[in-house]
Every structure is written in structure tokens, then in C-alpha cells.
Amino acid sequence: MAGQERDKDELDKDTVAKAYARWAPVYDLVFGSVFERGRKASIAAAERIGGRILEVGVGTGLSLPEYRWTNRLTGVDLSAPMLRKAKARVAEHRLTNVDGLAVMDAQHLGFQDGAFDVVVAQYVITAVPDPEATLNEFVRVLRPGGEIILVNHLGAETGLRAAIEQWFAPLARRLGWRPEFRWERLERWVAAHGGVKVIERRPMPPLGHFSLIRFGRLGGEFAAAG
Ligand SMILES: C[S@@+](CC[C@H](N)C(=O)[O-])C[C@H]1O[C@@H](n2cnc3c(N)ncnc32)[C@H](O)[C@@H]1O
To answer: What is the sign of the dihedral through the CA atoms of 178, 183, 187 and 190?
Structure first.
């Protein structure tokens, strides 16, 4: 992406952290059920591989009790207030399969190369300042043959929805996300990276404006599609 386009697109980390400090007390009420189908679908996709699962942008930890006990879970998030809720949930549900929860920036993960079998990011990739660098980091901490599972709103390519998303974008920045982020941007990242492939992209509710996306790290076997 050209420098100018990236500047225009910038979403800074402090704005996002402040936005989620405000969301934390009401997050589960507002986004708990509306995003539930996507969360469950991404967990099912992650469990096709299973093992060491990293949830980036784990938020209040809504998905943590939904994973099978056989998986080892690690969660990270930029927002300490969101993460405090996740820690309370882990204690409340006695989730002994959660190895750790830590405040961490998705773009600078404090894990070794190849440390995880799956990286899951639910409703996160359009909220990070540099989505491409963040995806590069996901690949780094993934073992060959492992998968990145994203579920996210994707912007419309054309038409009225695209125009509304462009119009809404400046306000949405202050709420901590990019409504106009399109699939083609992820396709460009895959082409530029060279070490990953798209395994699946499928529409998700609400309204089919969301997608479940699976990227596979090249160099190993992938779970079958579908
Ligand atoms: C829309 S919430 C999704 C939370 C959770 N995954 C869910 O499904 O409910 C986005 C989360 O991403 C986190 N986030 C945003 N930017 C981040 C970054 N650079 N590094 C880590 N987490 C980030 C936010 O703090 C927030 O908790």
C-alpha cells in the first residue's frame, strides 16, 4: 500500500485502547449475542486443528469457555480493562485449559516462532493500526501447516453499503474500527507474503456482512476445507 493511503487509513493504538476501555463495562451486553455465531464458527474451525490456540484480541474472553478442554488456550489483548473481564471469566468457569492471558499488542507478540497450532482473531483485524504487519506476526508465531482463523466485518466493494461505510469511517475510527476494510486488502497481503494461502472464506451473520476466513501457513498439512 502506498504511504499516503496508509496514513489516511491510520488507526492509532491509543485511540483503540481508549475506545475499548469505554466498551469494557458494556461489551458483553452489546456484542455478546450479536457476534455469537461468528465466534462459534471460528472456534469450530480452530478445533479442526486444535492443540495450542492463541486468541488475539481475546477481549472479555466470551469465547474461552466454548473451547474443548483438550485445547491449550492463550489470550492476549491491548486493553487491560477488557482483559480483566476475561480473567474473571476464566476464574468463574475454572478454565484450567487457559495457560495465560496477557496485555499485548497483536503486532508485537511475545511468543517464539511457531509456538502455536492456530491463531484466532475474532473481530480484531480491522481494529489494529497495521493489519498487514499484524498478520505477518500471526504467521511468525504459527507452526508450518497451522491456520489463522479470522472472523470479521468486511467492507462492501461497491454500491450503497460501500458509500455508507466510507461516510461512517471517520467516526468509526474513534470507536476503534474500520468499516470500509475490504477483502481485496487481505488478498493483496496473501500475494505479498508468499508463505500463506487462503483455505476458506465464508459469509457470516449478522446480514452476511461478516466473513469467516482461514489462512494456512505453507509448509505443512492443512485440515480439509468445508
Ligand atoms: C471487537 S473486540 C473483539 C473481542 C473478542 N474477540 C470478541 O469476539 O468478543 C476487539 C478486541 O481487539 C482488541 N485489540 C484491538 N487492537 C489490538 C491490538 N493492536 N492488539 C491486541 N488487541 C487489540 C481490543 O482491545 C478488543 O478487545
So the answer is: positive
| Domain boundaries 3-217, corresponding CATH code | 3.40.50.150
- Can you tell me which atom of ligand 1 is nearest the CA of 17? 25
Smallest CA separation from ligand 1 atom 24, residue: 57
**Domain residue ranges in the chain:** 3-217
Q: Which residues contact 26 (CB under 8 A, 6 or more apart)?
A: none
* Pocket lined around ligand 1, Cβ cut-off 6 Å: 13, 16, 20, 31, 35, 39, 56-59, 62, 77-79, 82, 105-107, 122-124, 127-128
pTM exceeds 0.85 = yes
When computed from its CA atoms, the radius of gyration of the chain, rounded to whole angstroms, is 17
CA of 159 to the centre of ligand 1 (A): 29
Contact 139, 197 (CB under 8 A): no
- Give pLDDT tens digits for 172-207: 767 766 777 889 999 999 999 999 999 999 998 877
State the burial class of residue 162 (Cβ atoms within 10 Å of its Cβ: 0-12, 13-18, 19+).
Answer: middle
Tell me the average pLDDT across 151-173: 76
Q: How confident is the model at residue 5 (pLDDT cuts 50, 70, 90)?
A: very low
